[in-house]
Amino acid sequence: MTTRRRTSRLSPGLRASHAVAILVLVLTAAFVTSALNDTQGGDPGDVGPSAYETWLDRGNLGTPEDFLASLIGTPGSPGISAYELWLIQGNQGSTSDFLASLIGPRGGPGTSAYETWLAEGNNGNATEFIAALTGPAGSSGKSAYQLWIDQGNVGSEEAFLVSLIGSPGSRGPAGSSGNSAYDAWVASGNAGTASDFLASLIGPAGDDGSAGASAYDLWLSAGNSGSTANFLTSLIGASGSDGSDGVSAYEFWLAQGNVGGEADFLASLIGPPGSTGSAGPAGNDGAAGASAYDIWVSNGNVGSPADFLASLVGSRGANGANGASAYELWLESGNEGSAADFLASLVGPRGAQGEPGVPGPTGEPGSIGATGASAYQIWLAQGNSGTEAEFLHSLIGEQGPPGESAGSMAFGSFYDTTEQTNDNVVNLMQFNQSDAHVGVAVQNGSEITFGEAGVYNIQFSAQVVKTDAGKNDQIEIWLLLNGENLPYTNTHLWTPGNNSLTVAAWNFFVTVDAGDFVELAWYSADASISLFATDAATSPARPAIPSVILTVNQVY
Protein backbone atom coordinates (compact mmCIF):
# COMPACT_ATOMS: atom_id res chain seq x y z
CA MET A 1 0.00 0.00 0.00
CA THR A 2 1.28 3.42 -0.91
CA THR A 3 0.92 5.95 1.89
CA ARG A 4 0.24 9.52 0.86
CA ARG A 5 1.32 12.23 3.31
CA ARG A 6 -0.09 15.75 3.25
CA THR A 7 2.62 18.35 3.61
CA SER A 8 2.04 22.04 4.39
CA ARG A 9 4.41 24.54 2.89
CA LEU A 10 4.24 28.29 2.90
CA SER A 11 4.73 30.02 -0.40
CA PRO A 12 7.10 33.00 -0.50
CA GLY A 13 4.04 35.32 -0.68
CA LEU A 14 2.53 33.73 2.40
CA ARG A 15 5.89 33.93 4.19
CA ALA A 16 6.00 37.69 3.48
CA SER A 17 2.41 38.04 4.74
CA HIS A 18 3.37 36.17 7.91
CA ALA A 19 6.38 38.51 8.33
CA VAL A 20 4.16 41.57 8.05
CA ALA A 21 1.68 40.07 10.52
CA ILE A 22 4.49 39.29 12.99
CA LEU A 23 5.82 42.84 12.60
CA VAL A 24 2.34 44.28 13.27
CA LEU A 25 2.01 42.06 16.37
CA VAL A 26 5.41 43.21 17.63
CA LEU A 27 4.54 46.87 17.11
CA THR A 28 1.12 46.38 18.74
CA ALA A 29 2.72 44.66 21.75
CA ALA A 30 5.21 47.52 22.05
CA PHE A 31 2.35 50.06 21.92
CA VAL A 32 0.31 48.18 24.54
CA THR A 33 3.37 47.86 26.79
CA SER A 34 4.03 51.59 26.41
CA ALA A 35 0.38 52.37 27.19
CA LEU A 36 0.51 50.15 30.31
CA ASN A 37 3.68 51.90 31.45
CA ASP A 38 1.98 55.25 30.98
CA THR A 39 -1.03 54.18 33.05
CA GLN A 40 1.31 52.87 35.76
CA GLY A 41 2.92 56.31 36.00
CA GLY A 42 6.41 55.18 34.90
CA ASP A 43 8.95 57.44 33.22
CA PRO A 44 8.72 57.43 29.39
CA GLY A 45 11.51 55.61 27.63
CA ASP A 46 13.75 56.89 24.85
CA VAL A 47 12.37 56.98 21.34
CA GLY A 48 13.33 53.69 19.69
CA PRO A 49 14.44 53.22 16.06
CA SER A 50 11.72 52.76 13.44
CA ALA A 51 11.32 49.46 11.58
CA TYR A 52 13.00 51.04 8.56
CA GLU A 53 16.02 52.15 10.69
CA THR A 54 16.29 48.64 12.17
CA TRP A 55 16.29 47.26 8.59
CA LEU A 56 19.20 49.59 7.70
CA ASP A 57 21.07 48.66 10.91
CA ARG A 58 21.06 45.02 9.73
CA GLY A 59 23.11 45.90 6.69
CA ASN A 60 20.34 46.51 4.16
CA LEU A 61 20.55 49.41 1.74
CA GLY A 62 17.72 51.29 0.10
CA THR A 63 14.88 53.77 0.53
CA PRO A 64 11.76 53.29 2.69
CA GLU A 65 10.07 52.04 -0.48
CA ASP A 66 12.80 49.37 -0.86
CA PHE A 67 12.19 48.40 2.76
CA LEU A 68 8.42 48.10 2.17
CA ALA A 69 9.03 46.13 -1.04
CA SER A 70 11.34 43.71 0.83
CA LEU A 71 8.41 42.77 3.06
CA ILE A 72 6.40 41.43 0.09
CA GLY A 73 7.38 37.97 -1.22
CA THR A 74 6.85 36.67 -4.73
CA PRO A 75 3.43 35.12 -5.43
CA GLY A 76 3.31 31.32 -5.02
CA SER A 77 2.11 28.95 -7.71
CA PRO A 78 -1.60 28.07 -7.59
CA GLY A 79 -2.36 25.11 -5.29
CA ILE A 80 -4.63 22.17 -6.08
CA SER A 81 -8.26 22.09 -4.93
CA ALA A 82 -9.61 19.78 -2.20
CA TYR A 83 -11.49 17.84 -4.90
CA GLU A 84 -8.21 17.27 -6.81
CA LEU A 85 -6.49 16.07 -3.61
CA TRP A 86 -9.41 13.66 -3.08
CA LEU A 87 -8.85 12.23 -6.57
CA ILE A 88 -5.03 11.99 -6.00
CA GLN A 89 -5.79 9.94 -2.86
CA GLY A 90 -7.30 7.25 -5.11
CA ASN A 91 -10.97 8.22 -4.90
CA GLN A 92 -13.16 8.32 -7.95
CA GLY A 93 -16.30 10.26 -8.75
CA SER A 94 -17.71 13.67 -9.54
CA THR A 95 -17.57 16.79 -7.39
CA SER A 96 -21.01 15.78 -6.06
CA ASP A 97 -19.55 12.43 -4.96
CA PHE A 98 -16.71 14.32 -3.28
CA LEU A 99 -19.15 16.63 -1.47
CA ALA A 100 -21.31 13.65 -0.43
CA SER A 101 -18.22 11.87 0.99
CA LEU A 102 -17.68 14.79 3.38
CA ILE A 103 -21.02 14.17 5.13
CA GLY A 104 -20.92 11.42 7.76
CA PRO A 105 -23.94 9.29 8.79
CA ARG A 106 -26.53 11.02 10.99
CA GLY A 107 -26.09 10.21 14.68
CA GLY A 108 -28.97 9.05 16.83
CA PRO A 109 -30.66 11.42 19.24
CA GLY A 110 -28.56 11.95 22.38
CA THR A 111 -29.90 12.10 25.92
CA SER A 112 -30.26 15.47 27.66
CA ALA A 113 -28.38 16.33 30.86
CA TYR A 114 -31.67 16.06 32.75
CA GLU A 115 -32.29 12.56 31.34
CA THR A 116 -28.72 11.53 32.24
CA TRP A 117 -29.37 12.86 35.78
CA LEU A 118 -32.48 10.70 36.05
CA ALA A 119 -30.59 7.65 34.64
CA GLU A 120 -28.07 8.04 37.47
CA GLY A 121 -30.81 7.31 40.00
CA ASN A 122 -31.97 10.82 40.83
CA ASN A 123 -35.63 11.76 41.10
CA GLY A 124 -37.31 15.13 40.52
CA ASN A 125 -38.49 17.58 37.89
CA ALA A 126 -36.37 19.90 35.72
CA THR A 127 -36.47 22.66 38.35
CA GLU A 128 -35.17 20.31 41.01
CA PHE A 129 -32.46 19.19 38.56
CA ILE A 130 -31.40 22.84 38.03
CA ALA A 131 -31.43 23.40 41.79
CA ALA A 132 -29.20 20.33 42.24
CA LEU A 133 -26.61 21.97 39.94
CA THR A 134 -26.40 25.05 42.15
CA GLY A 135 -24.13 24.84 45.15
CA PRO A 136 -24.82 26.63 48.40
CA ALA A 137 -24.41 30.37 48.28
CA GLY A 138 -21.07 31.59 49.63
CA SER A 139 -20.84 34.21 52.31
CA SER A 140 -20.83 37.76 51.11
CA GLY A 141 -17.33 39.15 50.69
CA LYS A 142 -16.24 42.59 51.79
CA SER A 143 -16.65 45.43 49.36
CA ALA A 144 -13.64 47.32 48.02
CA TYR A 145 -14.60 50.24 50.26
CA GLN A 146 -14.64 48.00 53.38
CA LEU A 147 -11.22 46.57 52.47
CA TRP A 148 -9.95 50.16 52.10
CA ILE A 149 -11.25 50.99 55.60
CA ASP A 150 -9.67 47.79 57.01
CA GLN A 151 -6.31 49.01 55.68
CA GLY A 152 -6.51 51.97 58.05
CA ASN A 153 -7.99 54.55 55.71
CA VAL A 154 -10.66 56.98 56.92
CA GLY A 155 -13.32 58.64 54.81
CA SER A 156 -16.62 58.30 52.96
CA GLU A 157 -17.26 56.21 49.86
CA GLU A 158 -16.71 59.38 47.80
CA ALA A 159 -13.27 59.83 49.42
CA PHE A 160 -12.50 56.18 48.63
CA LEU A 161 -13.44 56.68 44.96
CA VAL A 162 -11.28 59.81 44.77
CA SER A 163 -8.34 57.86 46.22
CA LEU A 164 -8.52 55.45 43.28
CA ILE A 165 -7.53 58.19 40.85
CA GLY A 166 -3.74 58.49 40.65
CA SER A 167 -1.92 61.67 39.87
CA PRO A 168 -1.29 62.20 36.17
CA GLY A 169 2.15 61.12 34.92
CA SER A 170 4.58 63.56 33.44
CA ARG A 171 4.36 64.15 29.74
CA GLY A 172 7.00 62.33 27.70
CA PRO A 173 9.13 64.15 25.16
CA ALA A 174 7.71 64.50 21.69
CA GLY A 175 9.11 62.06 19.18
CA SER A 176 10.73 63.25 16.02
CA SER A 177 8.44 63.52 13.04
CA GLY A 178 9.05 60.72 10.58
CA ASN A 179 8.69 60.95 6.80
CA SER A 180 5.22 60.24 5.45
CA ALA A 181 4.76 57.52 2.88
CA TYR A 182 4.27 60.24 0.26
CA ASP A 183 7.58 61.94 1.29
CA ALA A 184 9.37 58.59 1.05
CA TRP A 185 7.83 58.07 -2.44
CA VAL A 186 9.12 61.48 -3.59
CA ALA A 187 12.53 60.84 -1.97
CA SER A 188 12.75 57.66 -4.06
CA GLY A 189 12.84 59.76 -7.22
CA ASN A 190 9.14 59.81 -8.01
CA ALA A 191 7.43 63.01 -9.00
CA GLY A 192 3.77 63.95 -8.63
CA THR A 193 1.06 64.99 -6.20
CA ALA A 194 -0.31 63.03 -3.27
CA SER A 195 -3.10 61.87 -5.60
CA ASP A 196 -0.49 60.52 -8.03
CA PHE A 197 1.19 58.70 -5.13
CA LEU A 198 -2.11 57.09 -4.07
CA ALA A 199 -2.83 56.09 -7.67
CA SER A 200 0.64 54.41 -7.88
CA LEU A 201 -0.33 52.09 -5.01
CA ILE A 202 -3.10 50.47 -7.07
CA GLY A 203 -1.79 47.62 -9.25
CA PRO A 204 -3.34 46.54 -12.54
CA ALA A 205 -6.52 44.50 -12.34
CA GLY A 206 -5.99 40.72 -12.61
CA ASP A 207 -7.62 38.56 -15.26
CA ASP A 208 -11.10 37.31 -14.47
CA GLY A 209 -11.16 33.67 -13.43
CA SER A 210 -13.40 31.17 -15.14
CA ALA A 211 -16.88 30.94 -13.67
CA GLY A 212 -17.24 28.02 -11.27
CA ALA A 213 -20.19 25.67 -11.25
CA SER A 214 -23.02 26.66 -8.93
CA ALA A 215 -24.13 24.37 -6.13
CA TYR A 216 -27.26 23.60 -8.14
CA ASP A 217 -25.11 22.60 -11.18
CA LEU A 218 -22.98 20.36 -8.98
CA TRP A 219 -26.20 18.81 -7.61
CA LEU A 220 -27.38 18.06 -11.16
CA SER A 221 -23.97 16.68 -12.21
CA ALA A 222 -24.17 14.27 -9.24
CA GLY A 223 -27.11 12.56 -10.94
CA ASN A 224 -29.97 14.49 -9.31
CA SER A 225 -32.81 15.97 -11.33
CA GLY A 226 -35.28 18.72 -10.55
CA SER A 227 -35.68 22.48 -10.29
CA THR A 228 -33.75 24.86 -8.08
CA ALA A 229 -36.67 24.62 -5.63
CA ASN A 230 -36.16 20.81 -5.49
CA PHE A 231 -32.44 21.38 -4.94
CA LEU A 232 -33.08 23.81 -2.06
CA THR A 233 -35.57 21.37 -0.52
CA SER A 234 -32.94 18.59 -0.65
CA LEU A 235 -30.65 20.72 1.52
CA ILE A 236 -33.11 20.65 4.43
CA GLY A 237 -32.58 17.67 6.72
CA ALA A 238 -35.21 15.90 8.76
CA SER A 239 -36.49 17.76 11.78
CA GLY A 240 -35.04 16.65 15.09
CA SER A 241 -37.20 15.79 18.08
CA ASP A 242 -38.18 18.68 20.35
CA GLY A 243 -35.95 19.15 23.37
CA SER A 244 -37.31 19.54 26.86
CA ASP A 245 -38.28 23.05 27.97
CA GLY A 246 -35.44 24.99 29.54
CA VAL A 247 -35.59 26.84 32.83
CA SER A 248 -36.31 30.57 32.62
CA ALA A 249 -33.96 33.17 34.07
CA TYR A 250 -36.56 33.94 36.74
CA GLU A 251 -36.70 30.24 37.73
CA PHE A 252 -32.87 30.17 37.93
CA TRP A 253 -33.05 33.26 40.19
CA LEU A 254 -35.51 31.51 42.52
CA ALA A 255 -33.42 28.31 42.48
CA GLN A 256 -30.48 30.40 43.77
CA GLY A 257 -32.37 31.13 46.97
CA ASN A 258 -33.91 34.48 46.01
CA VAL A 259 -37.51 35.27 46.97
CA GLY A 260 -39.93 37.60 45.16
CA GLY A 261 -42.05 38.11 42.10
CA GLU A 262 -40.92 38.66 38.53
CA ALA A 263 -40.89 42.43 39.17
CA ASP A 264 -38.44 41.87 42.06
CA PHE A 265 -36.29 39.71 39.77
CA LEU A 266 -36.23 42.42 37.06
CA ALA A 267 -35.42 45.10 39.65
CA SER A 268 -32.45 43.01 40.87
CA LEU A 269 -30.94 43.18 37.36
CA ILE A 270 -30.58 46.98 37.54
CA GLY A 271 -27.33 48.10 39.15
CA PRO A 272 -26.81 51.42 40.88
CA PRO A 273 -26.40 54.40 38.53
CA GLY A 274 -22.82 55.31 37.66
CA SER A 275 -21.33 58.68 38.44
CA THR A 276 -21.95 61.45 35.95
CA GLY A 277 -19.09 61.92 33.50
CA SER A 278 -17.48 65.27 32.97
CA ALA A 279 -18.95 67.48 30.29
CA GLY A 280 -17.20 67.44 26.95
CA PRO A 281 -15.75 70.59 25.43
CA ALA A 282 -18.10 72.87 23.53
CA GLY A 283 -17.98 72.50 19.78
CA ASN A 284 -16.83 75.25 17.46
CA ASP A 285 -19.39 77.61 15.98
CA GLY A 286 -20.52 76.55 12.55
CA ALA A 287 -19.81 78.70 9.53
CA ALA A 288 -22.43 81.31 8.71
CA GLY A 289 -24.93 80.03 6.17
CA ALA A 290 -25.59 81.74 2.87
CA SER A 291 -28.55 84.15 2.74
CA ALA A 292 -31.61 83.41 0.62
CA TYR A 293 -30.45 86.13 -1.80
CA ASP A 294 -26.96 84.54 -2.06
CA ILE A 295 -28.54 81.14 -2.84
CA TRP A 296 -30.76 82.82 -5.47
CA VAL A 297 -27.69 84.35 -7.16
CA SER A 298 -25.72 81.04 -6.91
CA ASN A 299 -28.58 79.33 -8.78
CA GLY A 300 -27.79 81.45 -11.83
CA ASN A 301 -30.12 84.40 -11.21
CA VAL A 302 -28.96 87.96 -11.79
CA GLY A 303 -30.25 91.08 -10.05
CA SER A 304 -30.38 93.14 -6.87
CA PRO A 305 -31.98 92.11 -3.55
CA ALA A 306 -35.07 94.01 -4.70
CA ASP A 307 -35.20 91.82 -7.86
CA PHE A 308 -34.88 88.73 -5.62
CA LEU A 309 -37.77 89.91 -3.41
CA ALA A 310 -39.87 90.67 -6.48
CA SER A 311 -39.28 87.10 -7.74
CA LEU A 312 -40.93 85.76 -4.58
CA VAL A 313 -44.26 87.43 -5.41
CA GLY A 314 -46.59 85.23 -7.42
CA SER A 315 -49.04 86.43 -10.03
CA ARG A 316 -52.25 88.04 -8.85
CA GLY A 317 -55.14 85.62 -8.47
CA ALA A 318 -58.48 86.05 -10.21
CA ASN A 319 -61.10 88.25 -8.53
CA GLY A 320 -63.57 86.34 -6.37
CA ALA A 321 -67.24 86.18 -7.16
CA ASN A 322 -69.41 89.16 -6.09
CA GLY A 323 -71.17 88.63 -2.76
CA ALA A 324 -74.94 88.78 -2.37
CA SER A 325 -76.51 92.22 -1.72
CA ALA A 326 -78.30 93.00 1.55
CA TYR A 327 -81.64 92.69 -0.29
CA GLU A 328 -80.65 89.25 -1.68
CA LEU A 329 -79.57 88.08 1.79
CA TRP A 330 -82.94 89.31 3.11
CA LEU A 331 -84.73 87.16 0.50
CA GLU A 332 -82.50 84.15 1.27
CA SER A 333 -83.54 84.46 4.94
CA GLY A 334 -87.11 83.59 3.96
CA ASN A 335 -88.53 87.10 3.48
CA GLU A 336 -90.67 88.05 0.49
CA GLY A 337 -91.26 91.38 -1.18
CA SER A 338 -89.73 94.08 -3.34
CA ALA A 339 -86.65 96.15 -2.61
CA ALA A 340 -88.99 98.80 -1.21
CA ASP A 341 -90.41 96.22 1.24
CA PHE A 342 -86.85 95.38 2.28
CA LEU A 343 -86.03 99.08 2.88
CA ALA A 344 -89.30 99.57 4.76
CA SER A 345 -88.41 96.63 7.04
CA LEU A 346 -85.29 98.55 8.09
CA VAL A 347 -87.33 101.53 9.40
CA GLY A 348 -88.59 101.20 12.98
CA PRO A 349 -91.78 102.82 14.29
CA ARG A 350 -91.73 106.61 14.78
CA GLY A 351 -91.20 107.76 18.37
CA ALA A 352 -93.66 109.90 20.27
CA GLN A 353 -93.56 113.70 19.85
CA GLY A 354 -91.39 115.31 22.53
CA GLU A 355 -92.51 118.27 24.63
CA PRO A 356 -91.69 121.67 23.09
CA GLY A 357 -88.77 123.50 24.65
CA VAL A 358 -89.00 126.84 26.38
CA PRO A 359 -88.71 129.59 23.74
CA GLY A 360 -85.69 131.88 24.04
CA PRO A 361 -85.89 135.65 24.40
CA THR A 362 -86.62 137.66 21.29
CA GLY A 363 -83.63 139.52 19.97
CA GLU A 364 -83.64 143.22 19.21
CA PRO A 365 -84.74 143.90 15.62
CA GLY A 366 -81.99 145.11 13.32
CA SER A 367 -82.03 148.46 11.58
CA ILE A 368 -83.92 148.54 8.32
CA GLY A 369 -81.72 148.97 5.32
CA ALA A 370 -82.42 151.16 2.35
CA THR A 371 -85.13 149.79 0.12
CA GLY A 372 -83.76 148.66 -3.22
CA ALA A 373 -85.68 148.36 -6.45
CA SER A 374 -87.67 145.16 -6.55
CA ALA A 375 -87.52 142.73 -9.41
CA TYR A 376 -90.99 143.88 -10.42
CA GLN A 377 -89.81 147.51 -10.59
CA ILE A 378 -86.78 146.49 -12.64
CA TRP A 379 -89.16 144.52 -14.91
CA LEU A 380 -91.29 147.63 -15.39
CA ALA A 381 -88.17 149.79 -16.01
CA GLN A 382 -87.24 147.42 -18.86
CA GLY A 383 -90.45 148.50 -20.71
CA ASN A 384 -92.77 145.74 -19.48
CA SER A 385 -96.26 146.51 -18.19
CA GLY A 386 -98.63 144.63 -15.96
CA THR A 387 -99.40 143.72 -12.38
CA GLU A 388 -97.05 141.95 -9.97
CA ALA A 389 -98.96 138.73 -10.55
CA GLU A 390 -98.41 139.09 -14.29
CA PHE A 391 -94.71 139.72 -13.63
CA LEU A 392 -94.41 136.58 -11.49
CA HIS A 393 -96.27 134.53 -14.07
CA SER A 394 -93.84 135.74 -16.73
CA LEU A 395 -91.02 134.14 -14.78
CA ILE A 396 -92.50 130.63 -14.97
CA GLY A 397 -91.70 128.66 -18.09
CA GLU A 398 -93.91 125.92 -19.37
CA GLN A 399 -93.24 122.65 -17.49
CA GLY A 400 -91.94 119.88 -19.72
CA PRO A 401 -92.83 116.18 -19.23
CA PRO A 402 -90.50 113.91 -17.24
CA GLY A 403 -87.57 112.83 -19.43
CA GLU A 404 -86.44 109.26 -19.99
CA SER A 405 -83.79 107.92 -17.65
CA ALA A 406 -80.31 107.60 -19.23
CA GLY A 407 -79.68 104.34 -17.40
CA SER A 408 -78.56 106.06 -14.18
CA MET A 409 -80.50 107.04 -11.04
CA ALA A 410 -83.17 109.74 -11.38
CA PHE A 411 -82.78 113.07 -9.54
CA GLY A 412 -84.12 116.61 -9.41
CA SER A 413 -83.61 120.00 -7.71
CA PHE A 414 -86.47 122.54 -7.35
CA TYR A 415 -87.29 125.71 -5.36
CA ASP A 416 -89.85 128.59 -5.07
CA THR A 417 -89.12 132.34 -5.14
CA THR A 418 -92.45 133.60 -3.75
CA GLU A 419 -93.82 133.98 -0.22
CA GLN A 420 -96.43 131.28 0.41
CA THR A 421 -99.18 132.56 2.73
CA ASN A 422 -101.38 130.58 5.14
CA ASP A 423 -105.09 130.36 4.26
CA ASN A 424 -105.91 128.39 7.47
CA VAL A 425 -106.45 125.26 5.35
CA VAL A 426 -104.16 122.46 4.22
CA ASN A 427 -101.56 124.23 2.09
CA LEU A 428 -99.38 122.59 -0.57
CA MET A 429 -95.81 123.79 -0.97
CA GLN A 430 -95.28 125.31 -4.41
CA PHE A 431 -92.19 125.14 -6.68
CA ASN A 432 -91.86 127.67 -9.49
CA GLN A 433 -88.21 127.04 -10.40
CA SER A 434 -86.21 123.90 -11.35
CA ASP A 435 -82.50 123.16 -11.60
CA ALA A 436 -81.02 120.01 -13.16
CA HIS A 437 -83.44 117.08 -13.13
CA VAL A 438 -83.64 113.65 -14.81
CA GLY A 439 -86.62 111.36 -14.42
CA VAL A 440 -88.26 113.69 -11.86
CA ALA A 441 -90.37 116.81 -12.57
CA VAL A 442 -92.82 119.22 -10.84
CA GLN A 443 -96.30 119.44 -12.36
CA ASN A 444 -99.19 121.71 -11.40
CA GLY A 445 -96.89 123.72 -9.12
CA SER A 446 -96.81 121.16 -6.24
CA GLU A 447 -96.83 117.63 -7.69
CA ILE A 448 -93.37 115.97 -7.62
CA THR A 449 -93.84 113.43 -10.40
CA PHE A 450 -91.66 110.29 -10.99
CA GLY A 451 -90.88 108.87 -14.42
CA GLU A 452 -89.87 105.40 -13.19
CA ALA A 453 -90.60 103.19 -10.20
CA GLY A 454 -88.13 103.00 -7.35
CA VAL A 455 -87.13 104.21 -3.91
CA TYR A 456 -86.50 107.97 -3.61
CA ASN A 457 -85.01 110.22 -0.95
CA ILE A 458 -87.05 113.49 -0.73
CA GLN A 459 -85.30 116.33 1.14
CA PHE A 460 -86.77 119.80 1.70
CA SER A 461 -85.95 123.06 3.49
CA ALA A 462 -88.74 125.60 4.24
CA GLN A 463 -88.17 129.16 5.63
CA VAL A 464 -91.02 129.61 8.18
CA VAL A 465 -91.83 133.14 9.48
CA LYS A 466 -94.20 134.28 12.28
CA THR A 467 -95.12 138.00 12.04
CA ASP A 468 -97.45 138.54 15.02
CA ALA A 469 -96.62 138.94 18.72
CA GLY A 470 -97.83 136.80 21.58
CA LYS A 471 -97.67 133.12 22.35
CA ASN A 472 -95.79 130.47 20.45
CA ASP A 473 -97.56 129.09 17.41
CA GLN A 474 -97.39 125.71 15.74
CA ILE A 475 -96.95 124.55 12.16
CA GLU A 476 -97.37 120.96 10.89
CA ILE A 477 -95.68 119.52 7.80
CA TRP A 478 -96.35 116.12 6.21
CA LEU A 479 -96.29 114.15 2.94
CA LEU A 480 -99.02 113.16 0.45
CA LEU A 481 -98.78 110.34 -2.14
CA ASN A 482 -101.08 110.71 -5.15
CA GLY A 483 -103.20 113.22 -3.13
CA GLU A 484 -103.53 110.99 -0.01
CA ASN A 485 -101.86 111.51 3.37
CA LEU A 486 -98.90 109.14 3.96
CA PRO A 487 -99.15 107.63 7.47
CA TYR A 488 -96.61 108.66 10.11
CA THR A 489 -95.08 111.50 8.07
CA ASN A 490 -96.43 114.52 10.06
CA THR A 491 -94.17 116.73 12.22
CA HIS A 492 -95.10 119.60 14.63
CA LEU A 493 -92.84 122.66 14.77
CA TRP A 494 -93.10 125.54 17.25
CA THR A 495 -92.39 129.15 16.18
CA PRO A 496 -91.59 131.57 19.04
CA GLY A 497 -92.23 135.34 19.53
CA ASN A 498 -92.71 138.12 16.99
CA ASN A 499 -91.04 138.26 13.57
CA SER A 500 -89.25 134.95 14.26
CA LEU A 501 -87.71 132.91 11.48
CA THR A 502 -87.49 129.10 11.70
CA VAL A 503 -86.14 126.58 9.20
CA ALA A 504 -88.03 123.30 8.78
CA ALA A 505 -85.77 120.75 7.07
CA TRP A 506 -85.80 116.95 7.00
CA ASN A 507 -86.18 114.09 4.52
CA PHE A 508 -88.44 111.16 3.61
CA PHE A 509 -87.80 107.80 1.88
CA VAL A 510 -90.75 106.86 -0.35
CA THR A 511 -91.43 103.95 -2.71
CA VAL A 512 -93.33 104.89 -5.88
CA ASP A 513 -94.44 103.46 -9.18
CA ALA A 514 -93.86 105.15 -12.51
CA GLY A 515 -96.32 108.12 -12.86
CA ASP A 516 -96.89 108.55 -9.08
CA PHE A 517 -96.52 111.98 -7.50
CA VAL A 518 -95.93 113.24 -3.94
CA GLU A 519 -96.68 116.66 -2.36
CA LEU A 520 -95.44 118.49 0.74
CA ALA A 521 -98.44 119.73 2.79
CA TRP A 522 -98.45 122.18 5.70
CA TYR A 523 -101.00 123.65 8.11
CA SER A 524 -101.12 126.24 10.94
CA ALA A 525 -104.06 127.71 12.86
CA ASP A 526 -102.18 131.04 13.03
CA ALA A 527 -102.70 133.16 9.92
CA SER A 528 -99.49 135.11 10.70
CA ILE A 529 -97.35 132.08 9.83
CA SER A 530 -96.17 131.82 6.21
CA LEU A 531 -93.31 130.51 4.10
CA PHE A 532 -90.98 133.48 3.72
CA ALA A 533 -88.97 134.54 0.63
CA THR A 534 -86.91 137.61 -0.11
CA ASP A 535 -84.77 139.13 -2.86
CA ALA A 536 -80.98 139.23 -2.91
CA ALA A 537 -79.42 141.60 -0.41
CA THR A 538 -76.61 144.12 -0.83
CA SER A 539 -73.86 145.59 1.37
CA PRO A 540 -72.59 142.95 1.43
CA ALA A 541 -74.05 141.07 -1.51
CA ARG A 542 -76.07 138.02 -0.47
CA PRO A 543 -78.23 135.66 -2.53
CA ALA A 544 -82.00 135.65 -2.44
CA ILE A 545 -83.87 133.40 0.03
CA PRO A 546 -86.36 130.96 -1.55
CA SER A 547 -89.40 129.99 0.49
CA VAL A 548 -88.85 126.25 -0.19
CA ILE A 549 -85.87 124.20 -1.52
CA LEU A 550 -86.47 120.60 -2.66
CA THR A 551 -84.03 117.86 -3.83
CA VAL A 552 -85.05 114.36 -4.97
CA ASN A 553 -82.63 111.39 -5.43
CA GLN A 554 -83.41 107.87 -6.54
CA VAL A 555 -81.66 105.38 -4.23
CA TYR A 556 -82.94 102.12 -5.73
Describe this structure in words.
Strands 2, 4, 5, 7, 8, 9 and 11 form a seven-stranded antiparallel sheet that branches. Strands 1, 3, 6, 10, 12 and 13 form a six-stranded antiparallel sheet that branches. It is built from 21 helices and 13 strands. With 556 residues, it is of the alpha+beta class. Among the domains are: 12-36 and 48-101, no CATH class; 404-554, Sandwich (Jelly Rolls), CATH 2.60.120. The chain has helices spanning 12-39, 51-57, 64-70, 82-88, 95-101, 113-119, 126-133, 144-150, 157-163, 181-187, 194-200, 215-221, 228-234, 249-255, 262-268, 292-298, 305-311, 326-332, 339-345, 375-381, 388-394, and strands at residues 411-416, 427-428, 433-438, 440-443, 447-450, 454-466, 473-481, 484-485, 491-495, 500-512, 517-523, 529-531, 548-554.
Our measurement of the CA-to-CA distance between the termini, rounded to an integer number of angstroms, reads 132 Å
Give the total of beta strands: 13
Return the CATH class of the domain at 404-554: Mainly Beta
Strand proportion: 5-15%
Mean pLDDT figure: 83
- Overall 3D form: elongated
* Tally of alpha and pi helices: 21
Helix content: 25-40%
Q: Which architecture of the domain at 404-554 does the CATH hierarchy give at level 2?
A: Sandwich
**Sheet bearing the most strands, described?**
7 strands, antiparallel
Rg computed from alpha carbons, rounded to a whole number of angstroms: 62 Å
CATH T-level topology of the domain at 404-554: Jelly Rolls
Give me the secondary-structure category. Answer: alpha+beta
Low-pLDDT segments, ≥5 res: 1-21, 23-36
